[in-house]
Amino acid sequence: LGKIQSEVLGNQSGREGCRDKERERAKTMAMLEMNIFGIFMLLMLLLIFLIILFACKPWRYFSRFRSSRFSTFKVGDLQRPLVSDDGNLIQGQTSEATREYDLEGACYPNEGLLRSSLTEGRAYKQRLPSSSPHPTQGESFVLEVISEPSDNALVGQTLKHPAEKVSFEEEQTYDWQNKRSKNPQHDLEKDRLAELSPGLIKDQRSWLSLEVIAGPAIGLQYAVHSKSTSKLPVNLGRVSPADMVLKDSEVSGKHAQITWNSAKLKWELVDRGSLNGTLLNSRSVSHPDSGSRKWSNPAELANEDIITLGTTTKVYVRISSHNEFQTPFRIGVASDPMAARRGGRKLPMEDVVYYKWPLPGANKFGVFCVCDGHGGVGAAQSASKIIPEVLANILSDTLKKEKVLSRRDASDVLRDVLARTEARLDDHLYEGCTATVLLVWKDGEENLYAQCANLGDSACVINLDGRCIQMTEDHRVVSLTERKRIQEAGLSLRDGETRIFGINLARMLGDKFPKQQDSRFSAEPYISEPLRIDQSSKDVFAVLASDGLWDVVSPKKAVQLVLQMRGTENSAEKIANGLLNEARAMRTKDNTSIIYLDFDTSL
To answer: What are the entry keywords (predicted)?
Structure first.
């Protein structure tokens, strides 16, 4: 019995020992599982932190905060754009109209529905390159070029024009002794261009100025000095490294060359064996053996000559004592599509800026334009091409140009330009854009004038004689001027109504369908009073910008920022970028494009 009892007790203690071991093992496994789970959670938290860090990219904004060194203003000092809080803020020198604000912002809710189809395949203009504001002697000064290459032309291929058209010179005669063509049409064209040229000197040792007046590269300009040997000769062709690259399928890659003959003190034109030939005042200067592709003998150039390359591209020649295309003031351009929120994707770029001095055929006129599109960039791109084209066409009329110069007022011209532009945007049913057009010109006494026309909420301000002069009017639905216009037209707006057809503008270009449906929309521009710009005065400049700037920086602050930057910086390009950085630091949520013009010649 005792033996049995001891065996039972032994078995019981063995079982208890096994249970203890099992408990210890389970406890160890539980602790191991907890450690593994803790490590896993730490790794997950670290992964989530890294994902958030790389998504937000906070390091991208370190330079932006540093860039705000140009400004000493606090966020609390932010003033809404175009609100006159100073007696020196003048609108067009005539009124004190204030700019109201759309509290819903500058993003249009209906754009998301239209953008996917309307903007497909479009190239957004992210940044505009800017020419040097001070071209050196002999340096080329090339402004906006719009070219449409032939769809049938292969890259690097010159299209041979039919022979019967290449031999055009056989039907024309030219009196070399009297430098007159017997082609009446050529004479009329040359006489018209001669009226637009300034007084040119007989001594031809100086500047050669070339301007494309017909063809796909119309508007392209180039100037070189006879003493700039590093820039000579001037090569004309379809591809680089030509000095004037002419995107015309009938122009050869190495088509023609212009050289300075120091012995004769004459500019000379040579055809470089081009396929379609070169004409000077309708007479061929190509080699007699047209199929040999040999260089021709040099032909002397004179002021007001017209060079024809192929059959479509015509280059107008001016020879004078100064660079015809040197801008009499400094220009800076900056643009950025911006993002809807910090660290987010860039917005589609719907701003388009354009500037040109001088206009083709209008020697002492220049245009500066900001177009801010909505519903897509198409209307803004079209308007930026049509406006300078129509303006140059109007000012090529001697009577109209003389009327502007004598009256020192271009109101009729600006109104006509925007009316014609609106008429040519009939295919933009659901796309529209603002248009702020600043026309600058010199009269016969070299006095500088500026006048502005606008539709929409892109704005222009000029600082002159210590005054911040507002050259534009706000055309948003919430502005007092627009509500007054609508009421005077016998129409009405509901209390609190800030948009019509989902658009916060009441005046703009394009948007043909909404305009057909609601008569409250208009395309009648605001025209400012003309300003005489005294370039001898200190701190004379203009700022044109889309609403991406004016939504977060008031005109008064923009002027103060420029004045502050001008104290340490003379580059117009850097000042324009300084304003852009300020808009970025202020967290603007719309495309921002800026043109800065510095009229001060003392710098």
So the answer is: Hydrolase, Magnesium, Manganese, Membrane, Metal-binding, Protein phosphatase, Transmembrane, Transmembrane helix
Confirm if 95 and 480 have CB atoms less than 8 A apart.
no
Architecture (CATH level 2) of domain 163-320: Sandwich (2.60)
pLDDT tens-digit profile of 365-402?
A: 999 999 999 999 999 999 999 999 999 999 988 899 99
**Hey, which bits of 365-482 come out as E strands?**
365-374, 432-433, 435-442, 448-455, 459-464, 467-470
| Distance from the Cα of residue 211 to its chain's centroid | 21
In angstroms, the CA 300 to CA 316 distance is: 14
Non-local (6+) Cβ contacts of 592 within 8 A are 335, 336, 338, 351, 545, 546, 548, 549, 580, 583, 584
C-alpha–C-alpha distance, residues 265 and 119, integer Å: 54
Q: Nearest-CA neighbor of 367 among 544, 578, 246?
A: 544
Written out in words, the top-level CATH class of the domain with range 70-133+327-598 is alpha beta
**Domain chopping of the chain, boundaries:** 2-56, 70-133+327-598, 163-320
* Average pLDDT over the chain, rounded to an integer: 77
Q: pLDDT tens digits, residue range 488-537?
A: 988 888 888 899 989 999 999 999 999 999 999 999 999 999 999 987 77
